[in-house]
Amino acid sequence: MSFWIRNRGWATPALLLAPGALLFGVVIIASTVQSLWISLHQWDGMGPKVWVGFDNYRELFADRQFYTALRNNVIWLATFLLAPPLGLAIALLVNQSIKGMRLAKSLFFVPLVLSPAMVGVIYTWFYDPTYGLLALIFRAFGMEAPAILSNEHLVTLGVVIAALWPQITFCMVLFLAGLNNLDEEIIGAGRVDGAKGWPMLRHVVLPQLSQVAFLALAVSVIGALRSFDVVSVMTQGGPFGSSSVLAYLMYEQSIFSYRFGYGAAIATILFLIMIVFIVWYLWRMLRAEALEA
Amino acid sequence: MYPRPLAPDARMQRGVYMTIVAVILVLWLLPLIAVIATSFRSVEDILAGNYWGWPKSFAIGENYIDVFTETAMWRYILNSLIIALPTVLGVLVLSTFTGFVLSKFRFPGATLIFALFVGGNFLPHQIMMIPVRDLMVRVELYNTYFALIVFHVAFQTGFATLFMRNFIAALPGELFEAARSEGASQFQVLWHVVIPLVRPALAALAILTFTFVWNDYFWSIVLTQSDAVKPVTAGLANLKGEWMSAWNLIAAGTIIVAIPPVVMFFLMQKHFIAGLTLGAVKG
Amino acid sequence: MNRSISEIAGSLPKSVELQAVAKNYGTHSVLKGIDLAIDRGEFVVMVGPSGCGKSTLLKSIAGLATLTSGRILINGRDVTHQEPGDRGIAMVFQSYALYPHMTVAENMGFGLRMVKRPRAEIDVAVERAARILRITDQLDKLPRQLSGGQRQRVAIGRAITRSPEVFLFDEPLSNLDASLRTQMRVELSGLHAELGSTMIYVTHDQVEAMTMASRIVILNSGLIEQVGAPLELYANPRNLFVAGFLGAPRMNFFQATVDAVAADTVILQVVGAEKTISFPAVDTGSLSVGETLTVGIRPEHLAPLDAPMPGRVDLPATVRLVEHLGRETILYADASPLTTIGSESGTGTFTVQVNAVVSYYHGAPIRIGFAPSSAYLFARDGRTLSPRRTAGSGGSLT
Q1: Per the domain annotation, does B1 fall within a domain?
Q2: Best mutation site among A183, A192, A211 for testing chain C: the one with the most C CBs within 10 Å?
Q3: Is the ipTM of this complex over 0.85?
């Protein structure tokens, strides 16, 4: 009997699973583990790796730049928490079948389809103190616009708002899908019970959107921690590193300073922070599936 | 329907509503509108500081053509296509296989593998940056199309597997049982039952994957160096550096880069939205 | 000031009144002009085939669907433009529509919460409803922890706590299994007796209609075909549609040609019968010789005859199928060349119901017998030409 017939129970699935799993395992998973390993060494990317144990981390925790980046990540996180409610608000606004609404919906989605790098370029333009639209608006009111991207105190906020633009859109898409899957009868029951306006939203509609809201929250949190593109394009972490985030700091240290070991340590810290959320998300998702089954 | 639909005959109400929506829409897209407007201006207007008045001369044609002739934009666009299209193909094939296996077979470790696929997709790119770059250098794929193709196929397979697995799991089990009872092998089940039925999912996935890969910036700058292989996103950032004051050209370049995903989006909206939301909502 | 009781009763506002109610969805007309008056305490069942508009009508009364034209009054108040919550109604939905994230107690108290009743009052109302429906142990559970029957009770309980003027039921039993359905039917009837409130109940199941209603409203394509007490509708259907709708197994219909017309009889030529048959009839003036009429006869008014009986019609037929139901037997007999129209089995055979256990082999020859006075005549436009008979009387042969 051929190998295939004897083992056909598991041979085919294994064969089908292998290429994808292998590729993913090697490129993604193995790399992650490797980075953790590299963080314990000093390495310039070309020469030999020198074992330094936790020295990189010790240096990191004493580095002011690290805390600036960490603080900025927190600002990102706090601001991105606005994305789900704002996304919900726009979803509620456009969930009407009036003529032209389909076009309006499509247009609202556009920021999501743009590359984050594009968003960075667009907002750099927007914030330009001489020629930008923001400056123009300020001048219309007779005021001078602050040079947001050169201002140490405002720059992070400026960058975050740019990144918030597509993030709100993503949440809107999720909530629109959720709104279109509401149970009509439960809403009817709510109306018969006399629920209107805010009580209706809070007690009848939002509980039905909890699954979607959870996903929107998770995606926003992870997006806030992972952000790189917009920072890189708009400010390169400046001025003087005041807008840097952990993801950018890692890149900077590795590529520009050739300190791959140190960079890997930063990446590891970022990874550890995110693994908390990833595990929480996976746990919730798998539990929800188990409940349904 | 929630919020409560406005009555079909309340014309006044509906008109006012749409007007409000239109105003909000304009405010929402203001930055984008600004960039589009700038791309129409001539250099003289820009230098003269005439940003918002009626342009003295329209330079739509020149600007957009100049972007191609004076910069390497056409090369960047070609590169992006060369990278994105094979990636989409690879992702669709691999994730259909993995999604099929993970949705239909129970074996020890299945949940773990699935969790890795999902979790891996949420990882920060930075944690993989150094080893992946290093890997590409060592197998001499660094600064080639293959570097990006291999990476993107690997990475996107994570999300794509989740997507296909959920979709295939939602197919009625009786179909599989019927096929098996007629003696079909797993391969035949995959080919004759699964693939025809998951076509809409594949369409959604193709669009999403294309968009993600086209819009990727980080790996473009990490894994490529020379203009010969650089994709548009990195290329545009270059542009911004080189042509600091020629905002009209940069604006035109930005619009050009944004067009393919936007056009694809408008043509395939249904699929795109379905792709993002599959699994987010029950049923 | 000597007003009689009936005068006083007559001057009280109707519990629910529908005046020329019409509803269109775009160009499609779902309700075409409904007029109905329901008294306080009635249990009105609205039945009809799918698409007849009964659910739409119920939703319109509830306020979940807006009318294209017409008025709805509840206890004399015009509620046509009022929100569902303000109409004094409570509704039990087909799939119960319980709030999944709230406990049973919270579900039942939600309506009172919305009108800002004090906490103590809500608790008392919830307790009372839970007691009536015997779900006091389930008050802290979530809907997903309950069985179908329990969820149904919670849905009813939610309606009871609000002490509405009118209860609306939208096919509440269709999601339950058969035995539970019978049990709940009995319970709902008991509930109505206990609470004495007006109840409007929508179903497609004519057994529920017959057993629970004080009055049945039969709807067809957006219009009311007939309104009346169950037995009245059963015995005196106004037209072919109503005759065929009520009664299971369904009435047998076949066509016959008019041979002669008299003041109160019609003589018909029936295919397969040896002689012409005389049927009692009313409104015969509009009929002409040679015209085709439809004759209807209920399965329980047919019997297999061993020998021809005087005064009875008998049709020769062959037994095709015998169904033994324990207390009764259903025979499907082929009386070719005479065929039935729109029979349940779809084969043009007659359905005969016998209240005994009888046996026939497949292909056995029998004679189907019936008394012409128990048959119904229908004109070409469907309206009944038979004289009125007392509700509850049959015309059986035994």
Answers
A1: no
A2: A192
A3: no
